[in-house]
Amino acid sequence: MKEIYVLRHAKSSWDNSNLSDFERPLADRGISDAKKMSKFLKDMDLKIDKVLCSNALRAKETFDLTADGFNFEIDKATYLDKLYFGDTTTIIQDLKELDESLNNILIVGHNPTLHYLVEILTNELINRFTTCNLATISHDGEWVSLNSQQCRLKSLIKPKELRNWKRLKSKY
Questions:
Q1: Which pLDDT tens digit goes with each residue over 55-82?
Q2: Is-contact 130 115, C-beta < 8 A?
Q3: How far is residue 161's CA from residue 45's CA, in Å, rounded to a whole number?
Q4: Which residues pair with 153 in a beta bridge?
Q5: Separation CA 116–CA 122 (nearest Å)
Q6: What is the C-alpha to C-alpha distance for residues 149 and 1, in angstroms, rounded to an integer?
């Protein structure tokens, strides 16, 4: 069984209007949410084999703050511009080209692309995929055969729900 973890970047700061969208850092709430998510993930004892992360600052900062929870070394992540500028077709193609020895993949990026990706892969409508939300998608099959008939949404975790994380643990 393969698992795809889809993490939207945490809340970004709009304090400096001189920064481009690509250069926006995390807001204080984003930092707090990412730290909460990391603590929750650490308790789950996850093992990620590969990380694909947007090059945008807020996505990098989100991954940096959650990397420990995913049990993944920051310097081994793959940073891609196409996760900032790309679309679902590109991401799905990249997943289909993964080595079969990899079982657990993390994608860190942006909406609306990640929202659509979760819906396309799982054939489920998601009301909102807000900042620092984490979707876990299980895939029954090889990467090359990735399709919505073999995927299911295992969980969708929101930072505000982490106060009740003992209840959430049962989803894993």
A1: 999 999 999 999 999 999 999 999 999 9
A2: no
A3: 19
A4: 137
A5: 10
A6: 14
